[in-house]
């Protein structure tokens, strides 16, 4: 298993992913707070939920990037980061993460009612579970 890689405590890249985790954790908790009342949210609140998901997702792949770099794995692009995170068993469902990445543009165009509804559905039915798993993974490393 890949998680047996030892990271030196004085490794500045380890410090970087830990700092990123703090920001990710804040975003994650705000996202979870917004999604708790999913079925009772107004349209404006649903737009806020999408916004919270967007920045939580951005911090997710950046956290994975920082962590991979602390392991000596160099990656630059989000697609490669997701592939490597799957390879190193940081995430289990690479297909959903790739879908999140691809749908990032869809989420930016929520003014279209069809895109808006599809984004909300994806967030609630697929993406939420994967973000939770990522949070749990890193929480276990703290």
Shape label: globular
Annotated CATH topology? Four Helix Bundle (Hemerythrin (Met), subunit A)
Head-to-tail CA distance between termini: 19 Å
Provide the structure class.
Answer: mainly alpha
Number of helices: 6
Number of strands: 0
Folded structure, characterized:
With 142 residues, this protein is mostly helical. It has one domain (11-141): Four Helix Bundle (Hemerythrin (Met), subunit A). It contains 6 helices and no strands. It has helices at 12-35, 43-70, 78-87, 94-102, 104-108, 113-141. The longest helix is centred in the last third of the chain and has 29 residues, at 113-141. It is globular and about 45 Å long. Mean pLDDT is 89; it is low at 1-8.
Task: Give me the secondary-structure topology.
Layout: H1 12-35, H2 43-70, H3 78-87, H4 94-102, H5 104-108, H6 113-141
Please sum up the structure shown.
With 142 residues, the protein is mainly alpha-helical. The chain is 74% helix and 0% strand.
